[in-house]
Amino acid sequence: MSDAFVSLQSLTLAYGDTIAVPDLSLDVRQGELISLLGPSGCGKSTTMRAIAGLLAPRAGRIGIAGRDVTRVPANRRNVGLVFQSYALFPHLTAFENVAFGLRLKRMRGAEIERRTRDGLATVGLDHLARRKPAEMSGGQQQRLALARSLVMEPDVLLLDEPLSNLDARLRLEMRNELQRVQRATGVTMVFVTHDQAEALALSDRIVLMRDGRIEQLDTPEGLYARPRTRFAADFVGFENIFDVVPEGLKGPEGTVPHRVPHRVPGDVAALAWRPGGVRVGSGELRGRVAGVAFAGTTREYVLDSALGRIRADAPAGAERLAIGDQVAFDLPPETACPLGTA
Amino acid sequence: MPTLASRVVLALVLTFLIGPFVIIILAGLSAGNSLAFPPDGLSLKWYLKVFTVESFQASFALSMFLAVFGTLAALALGVPAAYALNRYDLPGAETVRIIVAAPIIVPGIIVGLALLRYLVVPTGVGVTLALFLAHTALVLPYAVRVVSSSLHNLRADMEEAAVLLGCTRLQAFFKVVLPNIRAGVLAAFILGFVTSFNQVPVSLFLSGPGVRTLPIDMLAYMEITYDPSVAALSALLAFLSVAIVFAAEKFLGFSRYV
């Protein structure tokens, strides 16, 4: 509790009769970038709305900056939220959008002017102050929404799918922008995203959520290399997951003998391989090429095997296989990720 | 490329719609003393006479009052109603929508008779007040409908953004929602104004001695005096309506809301 800046304790969140989040506890450190990651319906947005004060918890407690805000209304929580849709005010100029919250604070005009200018400059929009949101590009609108929240100097800044509406190039730009802003302001940021790449790229820590529960709380490196459950492994790109049975490995199509790696402890329920961890061209397993796609540095294969479908990446320089070719492959123990029973 | 047949149909429809206007306008320009078409010579005397008839002045004032304040009252009730129906998952919302729409669906004659029998007669409310209440009720459905459609296009997260920036829900409504549905509210006002101003059947039942709306007064006038001034007045009112709708379309894109 000591280093928790945002503290969620046994939070139960519901819409009507539907419990979206049954019992969630999470501590976020000050100045941290943390992501709530998961597929739609996992409770990540619900949790974010609860932190913002837009949804009252059924049970539990929310603390922000050492203050119990469970019963504090959204407009007095000092929490910023950058909406996925940006939710800019279309009838106001960029300047007035940013000044909106400051004006409500009954600040002096000169102070509002100064802070608004600073806010627009922070996101590089000072030259567009007179524009209306509709006259700005998607990326500019996003930065405007960011500036509008930042000038309020929130304790926590929540971002709902901040990169999902941007094209690939803008995405990279915005990612850098968010990290730069975070370093400059030191604001604690909580992202909500369904995109594992986005979460891995941006976060200090990732909260992987599933059905309203925390599936795994880890660093990006930890989650990427050592997912602990089948769900987590699947989410971070381990596309080949097979149950460990006494005879070897069991897939949807059948069971094959397999040498279970020595370093794996006894309670392993399954082994998982990324497409890049599958060795194509040699090994004791046999498969038939069912699909192939060139992806620059690699060639991505789909193989039909006795286990079922295998996704495997081979170096682009390796021998080129065609659909229908028989090929040997291996699921090497050294590239396997052991998964627990959960 | 339109075929000959479709051109003929178009011409007939336009004639049917606009023809009566032309006849009325021309009939009002008559130099003779009775309402007739084709007009008996040409003069502007009936158009000028309209402004000197005292009962027209009084009934025009009443109609304007009802149209302006009845519509404003309907908006004062209708905007919050539309907001509540749009934003909250209210029990019985569908029932409320139907009840609100009732004055459009139920024939005016019945509304008028019902109001007379069950409002005016038992309570003895003044004629003006009864008319005001009736016109407010008649315009309310339009207010709710038109404002609903603009609220529907306004994302709810904009209000949440305003709240997170420090607004109360009420402030968010006035600072964010209202400015963004302004065009819809104005469209509802114009539609309500025209509806109220042209209202006949309900007003017919509720008009009392010396208190008549303009359309009712014109009917009464025609029963006694069959001169072209009614045609002249009708033409003037038609121009007024056209001017209002034209201005609304030009400045607001009125047709998007109706």
Keywords for this entry:
heterodimer, A: 342 residues, alpha+beta, Rossmann fold, OB fold (Dihydrolipoamide Acetyltransferase, E2P), six-stranded mixed β-sheet, 25% helix, elongated, B: 258 residues, mainly alpha, MetI-like fold, 12 helices, 76% helix
In short:
Chain A is α+β, with helices and mostly antiparallel strands. Chain A has eight helices and 19 strands. Chain A folds into two domains: 225 residues, P-loop containing nucleotide triphosphate hydrolases (Rossmann fold); 102 residues, OB fold (Dihydrolipoamide Acetyltransferase, E2P) (Beta Barrel), CATH 2.40.50.140.
In percent, how helical is the residue content of chain B? Answer: over 70%
Instruction: Count the beta strands of chain A.
Output: 19
**Sequence of strands across the biggest β-sheet of chain A:** 6-7-8-3-9-10
**Main sheet makeup of chain B:** none
CATH architecture of the largest domain in chain A: 3-Layer(aba) Sandwich
The appropriate CATH architecture of chain B is Orthogonal Bundle
The coarse silhouette of chain B is: globular
- What string gives the helices and strands of chain B in order? HHHHHHHHHHHH
What is the mean pLDDT of chain B? 87
Count of structural domains of chain A: 2
List the uncertain runs of chain B: none
Helical residues, percent of chain A: 10-25%
GO molecular function (chain A): ATP binding; ATP hydrolysis activity; transmembrane transporter activity
Pfam families (chain A): ABC_tran, TOBE_2
Protein name (chain A): ATP-binding cassette domain-containing protein
Keywords (chain A): ATP-binding, Nucleotide-binding, Transport
